[in-house]
Specification:
343 residues; alpha/beta; 7-stranded mixed sheet; 12 helices; 7 strands
């Protein structure tokens, strides 16, 4: 059981984390205003409400750790030198993002013939991000950018998925394996490995640069493999894995591709297997947050986000043969659990 000192260490680290990333969020928000992002059409949640909900997220995260549902993260304390270097890189890139936003240019990647072999929906500068998902620079920036967006709460939101994963692994037994669809830099897989260091995991992503980052991030653990492939064409045989995860991917996909990803996830799951989806809230999950969700595409290039907000997840996955089991809301994130019925 964690001690009182462990509780104090967690609270101190998350307090520093929240302040650090919220300060960067304010700088990014100021840049958005200068860039002419339209004023919100409806009233947004106030800062006090957002701060209280973020605090509640950290309390929930700690409660799960204290209850033994998952482990304290391996990097509870960040090296200050790395944090400062990441901050400098983020702020330097913010100027490029602002310039791209003012021009309305989110197609730089699409114009590069080196990436012509990749799906067209993928070849965009999502979030007006420099290089899209397709460079080492982008991969170095990504996790910091996500934490800025969520004021330091992204990791605590992701970790909620570990609870339904643990339930599925206990059911599957010691030979179980896990597939992370759209693994990016492998950040979520490091939390998986914190808890099940011997678990065989496979991360699939389209970006060679992000896969290289994932390999580096998973280097401390064994039994971690990676493959470059599209989420709608997974390089696995039928019924190959016991657990699959999909973290912050579906809102980046066109509706048709989203449905094909659901079908692929169902195909590669064994009977009795489980898919855990971690993604943005949708309309109606927290009605007073709907205006905040609507504002997101105004500030960032998010071409498929509006379709995500209205998507019927249970229907999409039911059409693929999966059964909705549970939904949990963690701050700005939804964790949805789907099972493939046992034969």
């Amino acid at each position: 059981m964690p001690s009182a000192l462990d509780r104090l260490a967690y609270a101190a680290s998350q307090g520093l984390r929240r302040s650090w990333f919220y300060g960067h969020y304010l700088l990014a928000a100021a840049a958005e205003r200068r860039d002419g992002v339209p004023a919100p059409r409806r009233r947004l949640p106030g800062r006090d409400r957002l701060r209280a909900d973020l605090e509640a997220l950290f309390e929930r995260d700690w409660a799960a750790i204290a209850a033994g549902l998952y482990a304290t993260p391996h990097d509870l304390w960040t090296d200050p030198r790395r944090a400062l270097a990441a901050s400098r890189a983020f702020l330097a890139d913010l100027a490029s993002v602002s310039a791209r936003r003012r021009r309305g240019d989110h197609q730089e990647v699409a114009r590069d013939p080196a990436f012509a072999h990749l799906p067209r929906y993928y070849r965009q500068n999502f979030h007006y991000q420099t290089d899209g998902w397709l460079s080492e620079r982008s991969a170095r920036l990504y996790d910091f950018q996500v934490e800025v967006l969520f004021s330091g709460g992204a990791d605590a939101m992701r970790r909620g998925a570990l609870i339904p994963i643990g339930e599925a692994l206990a059911r599957a037994g010691p030979a179980a394996g896990l597939l992370d669809i759209g693994c990016g830099t492998g950040r979520f897989l490091t939390f998986v490995k914190d808890n099940w260091p011997r678990l065989a995991v496979l991360g699939v992503d389209l970006s060679p640069a992000y896969l290289a980052a994932a390999r580096r991030n998973l280097r401390p653990w064994r039994s971690a493999a990676f493959a470059q492939a599209a989420a709608e064409r997974l390089p696995l045989r039928d019924a190959a894995v016991d657990v699959a995860t999909c973290v912050y991917l579906l809102h980046e996909l066109p509706p048709g591709v989203r449905r094909r990803v659901a079908a692929e996830a169902a195909r590669v799951l064994r009977p009795g297997g489980r898919l855990v989806v971690v993604d943005s809230l949708q309309h109606g999950d927290r009605p007073d947050y709907d205006a905040l969700l609507d504002r997101f595409p105004d500030a960032f290039h998010e071409p498929y986000f509006a379709s995500w907000l209205a998507a019927d997840l249970p229907a999409i996955f039911a059409a693929a043969g999966l059964v909705a089991r549970a939904v949990e809301l963690r701050f700005l994130t939804k964790i949805a659990v789907f099972d493939r019925p046992a034969a």
